[in-house]
Amino acid sequence: MASLIICCFLVVLFSACHEVSSTSDQLCIEKEANKTYNCENLGLSEIPETLPNTTEFLEFSFNFLPTIQNTTFSRLIDLTFLDLTRCQINWIHDDTFQSHHQLSTLILTGNPLIFMAETAFNGPKSLKHLFLIQTGISSLEFIPPHNLENLESLHLGSNHISSIKLPNDFPAGNLKVLDFQNNAIHYFSREDVNSLKQATNLSLNFNGNDIKGIEPGAFSSQFFQSLNFGGTRDLSVIFSGLRNSTIQSLWLGTFEDIDNQYLSSATFQGLCDTSVESINLQKHHFSDFSSTTFRCFAQLQNLDLTATHLQELPSGIEGMNSLKKLVLNVNKFDQLCQINAANFPSLTHLYVKGNMKKLHLGTGCLEKLENLQKLDLSHSGIEASDCCNLQLKNLPRLQSLNLSYNELIGFQREAFQACPQLEILDLSFTHLHVSAPQSPFQNLHHLKILNLSHSFLDTSNQLLLAGLPDLRHLNLQGNRFQDGSIPKNNLLQTVGSLEILVLSSSDLLSIDQQAFHSLDKMSHVDLSHNNLTSNSIDALSHLKGIYLNLAANAIGIISPHLLSILSQQSTINLSHNPLDCTCSNIHFLTWYKENLQKLEDLEETVCANPPSLQGVQLSDVRLSCGITPVGILFLTVFFLLVSILLIFAIKFFLRWKYQHI
Amino acid sequence: MNGLAAALLVWTLISPSGGGHGGRGDMWPTHVACRNEGLEVFYQSCDPLQDFGFSVDQCSRKLQPHLSIRFGIILREDIRELFLDVLLLSKGASVLNFSYPICEDDLPKFSFCGRRKGEQVYYAGPVDNSSFDVPEGEYQVLLKLYNENHSTVACANVTVIAS
């Protein structure tokens, strides 16, 4: 019997324990006190009482609310953002949001809605964004139109909608984005498109609807900010259907999983009568690429031909004189000259990123592009032994050049004479070869940002960075220095205007005290992920008010004379260091607690030593080192007692010894 | 009497994990992605929040290019950008490790790119793999799909047995 009682007691005890743990499981995450909460994936069937009444942003997706009504959220009257994604909502009853005057975004994605009451959206003074993606809607009549006058975006993707015609009483006056992705829309009539007329500057998304027909003139004399017909198989239908309209941006790309349809000159016929500023044709195939294919692209400013299986562009293309931006990423060019750049004399931006073959830069292939400002040749397997004056011949206005993620590029002196206006140069993750003591960047008077991360630089070349009077931002991450140390005389001495310096992940063991002495404008120094000890902090003694990242180094003890250097900086990150939390580091530990507002990433700044404090946050460590006044008193009393005892003992000993004489 | 008490105790100890919602903390079942003479592929979801469905249409040790797959999942994150990490292990040693973009802002490769958190996605179509002969042996593959914020979209422990 007793054992049964004990067992029952245990049962009660265990079930109580589990109850406690399951309620603590259901706590929402506080992202911003009293304002932003995340209660995702908790299986809740009501709003937890722990949420404060002042909650404004509530992420409540993947919970369980089959019915929502005016009592469901009534306590949280300050809500501005409410995400109810996949909460298994079937019913939205009358006046559910009656008291939520501030509500501006409501997300109902992935709920199997059966019915929304006429007054479901009444209450909010300005409901701006409504998401009804994959809610089973087959007709726009399903959406109660009351109180939607302020709607700016309406997302209706992945439903069963076949017509875009808005109901007569639907207020579309402020609508800017209308998203019909992945529906069953195959045809537009004039009446359909006319129902959108109240909206100006509209962006319409029909991606994933295979459009088969457009009534002639349906879109005529209308203006659209953007139209997306992604994945439509027959583009000629779109081009002829859009006659006489004005479109800022037209997205007509296709995808890997959609059958090929070949584009020809005839496909684009309708474009001659349409005003379009930018077109995307990604992943299409061209059947007969000729100089007349782009005949109707005369007004076009931006053309995106990403992954269109191009091996070359024909010379003598007509009517591309006004093109400003051309994207030729992920194609199959052998030579840069095969893009026949002379076709596009007005070009300011050119992208040939991720070329699928090894791209040869050739000589002067872009020399007709006198207006070019931005050139991206990254990820294209480029190899060039003597770059870049011949390759980039005559690019007087080039401001931004990206050669990152290429194979091997060799530089001689003044390698960028051909583009003296360069402001940004990205060479990261490209193996660079510069024979010492050359200065490849000499005379780039306007260069402000230089990224040389992971470029296998010879950092012992002290003239490498000579001739860059305006350089503000230098990234040297992942480059090695001889013996893992930056000596007094180093390559940074020539770049006195530097404000941001990144030297992370460079296997550094030490930095000379004088290494940065010529750099007095620095405001941001990143030395993280090295093996530096606190001695290297001396190199920063002349700098004030900087952001200093020393995370993931080998800093254990920081001696008192270095604390004044840290004190004069504005933000410091010391996380992931083997910091010492014994009395030998007491000055630093005291300083740390007094300067918490300066320190970043406090949670990851933990003790490594002694073993008893391993993993404890530095801010939580309480050490008492040295002797306190009470201790001194006790010690004095103790010594006094001991000496009195000793005197008595000696006295007794002597008396005992001489008694026998 | 004692037996009853013990049973009661055991039940209380076990019940919270068994009766909890969604079976969280449990392992998801192992599914067969394809099985044929010579090649067997099993997978198990390693996303603690949910399982997913996956199958490969043709299954042979001589993998054909542009394999057709079927894939069904509920998105827990937006996939405006989506990346795949693959880690291939043979006998516990890492053989191959690569990362591949599936959806990018400037190149959405597949029609499902850009779909939103909460959407149920079913994809039946090709993947752009190259042809490949699977050498005999047993392989472990760790697949991870994640978005631009490094939030997990799907995670799978795959076992491939080629005999």
TrEMBL record, chain A:
Signal peptide positions on this chain: 1-22
Pfam families: LRR_11, LRR_8
A GO BP annotation: inflammatory response
Broad class of where this protein is predominantly found: membrane
Membrane topology: Single-pass type I membrane protein
Family label: Belongs to the Toll-like receptor family.
Record protein name field: CD180 antigen
Source taxonomy: Eukaryota, Metazoa, Chordata, Craniata, Vertebrata
Automatic annotation (TrEMBL), chain B:
InterPro entries to which the protein is assigned, alphabetical: Ig_E-set, LY86, ML_dom
Domain MD-2-related lipid-recognition: 43-160
Leader sequence residues: 1-22
Keywords, in A-Z order: Signal
Swiss-Prot/TrEMBL GO biological process terms: innate immune response; lipopolysaccharide-mediated signaling pathway; positive regulation of lipopolysaccharide-mediated signaling pathway
Protein name per the record: Lymphocyte antigen 86
